[in-house]
Amino acid sequence: MKGIFVGTKPTPYKVIIGARALTQVGSLIAKTAPDVQKVLIVSDSNVAPLYLEKVKKGIEISKMEVCEYVFEAGEKSKNIDSIAAMWGVMAENKFTRTDAVVALGGGVVTDMGGFAAATFLRGIKVFQVPTSLLAMVDAAIGGKTGIDLKEGKNLAGAFWQPTMVIEDTDCLKTLPDELFTEGFGEIIKHAFIMDTELYDLLREIADEGKVDKIREDDALLEKIVSMNVSDKVSVITEDTLDNGLRQTLNYGHTVGHVIERNSNFSLAHGVCVAKGMGIMIDSCEAAGTLPSEEASKMRDLIKAYGLPVSDDITAKEAFDGVLNDKKKRGDNISVILVNKIGHAEIKKMTAEEFESFIGKGKAL
Ligand SMILES: NC(=O)c1ccc[n+]([C@@H]2O[C@H](COP(=O)([O-])OP(=O)(O)OC[C@H]3O[C@@H](n4cnc5c(N)ncnc54)[C@H](O)[C@@H]3O)[C@@H](O)[C@H]2O)c1
Ligand SMILES: [Zn+2]
Predict the structure, then answer these.
(1) Boundary-marking domain end, from 135, 153, 173
(2) Of 37, 62, 103, 186, which has the fewest Cβ atoms less than 10 A away?
């Protein structure tokens, strides 16, 4: 079991990572927040049948009262009605400021459990217990919580730091294959923007033909998840409110988001991020800032983890999509570039410059 310290202000917290961590959720809550008397476990219809009882038992043994709110799995539940239902359960059961939410599930659950906690009685504790790879390495870390509106994704929310994040890597064994693969979009992103050691590890696993065996290796899973949590933690502790450095986490996302939206969200986020990174690699190579040998290494890694490096989106479509994305013509957009594995740069471009940059990559 590994503990990673997150030095966010004013309240630092820990991320606990390892196999069988779920059995300790109750005792960890009792130890970190001894005043908690009632806990609302928020989960979804896929995760609850697998893990809710285990977590519930551990919390009850630690002498806390448990309520549950389970919603239908999927992004379509990430809305204000689900949040209102969570508020309702807590109000009915007379939760007070010292009680807590446990968010047990993927990113949809951790975003919503966090938002319900941030808003109920103007803020109660949340323990994030992510069960998907994406939520472990990304969504549950950093304190961004929220819901979708019919006008768009993640449009309402709050920054709300958890009291603790508990990640049981055993949960990854029940994750559908395509969701496990998708999680590597963000993992490879971390390697490219900031972590050469992670790049080397991922490369080595791929070279040894062991990509398909990662899930069977508890120690390796713990290592990969921990390295990624540390990466995200180091970025967010320097930039808690998303003003500067945190933007580098958007590598592959500017075009990735447009591809995701254009597919009507039928393509998974991690897959779109991989495509978005592939397009940035092509564009940087065409601009002459990313050496071809480095570009090939980057593409090879993405492909080795079963993810795509291209998409038939045109530069014009990317440009239009970016303009739709809360930007106006003539506005500067911050484009995240990687010209050397392990190092990200933020470059301001006008949308027109961006179109020509992507266009050259497309013509490669
Ligand atoms: N707050 C942030 O910083 C942040 C960052 C990235 C993504 N997100 C959000 O995260 C969401 C995507 O996360 P996600 O991919 O985890 O989505 P998700 O929560 O919908 O989970 C994906 C699917 O996997 C299932 N699942 C989860 N864990 C499982 C397990 N251990 N075994 C079997 N099935 C399991 C879920 O029930 C669901 O069907 C999006 O809503 C996105 O906006 C937030
Ligand atoms: Zn992402």
Answers:
(1) 173
(2) 37
Give the end-to-end CA distance of the chain in Å, rounded to a whole number: 46
Q: For residue 145, give the ligand 1 atom closest to its CA.
A: 1
Report the pLDDT value the prediction gives residue 323, as an integer from 0 to 100. 79
Using CB distances shorter than 6 Å, the residues near ligand 1 are: 44, 46-47, 50, 73-75, 78, 105-109, 111, 131-132, 134-135, 138-139, 142, 144, 154, 171, 174-175, 179
Mean pLDDT of 100-105: 98
pLDDT, tens digit (0-9, with 9 covering 90-100), for 39-91: 999 999 999 999 999 999 999 999 999 999 999 999 999 999 999 999 999 99
Helices (H), 33-176: 47, 53-61, 80-92, 107-119, 133-134
Tokens 């040998």 belong to: 293
Residues 271 and 245 in one domain: yes
Ligand number nearest CA of 104 is: 1
Which domain does 335 fall in, by range? 177-362
Q: Which residue among 173, 205, 224 closes a domain?
A: 173
Helix (H) or strand (E) holding 149: strand 144-149
The H-or-E segment that residue 271 falls in is helix 269-286
Q: Which of 22, 76, 111 to mutate to test the pocket of ligand 1 (most atoms within 8 A of CB)?
A: 111
User: How many domains are contained in the chain?
Assistant: 2
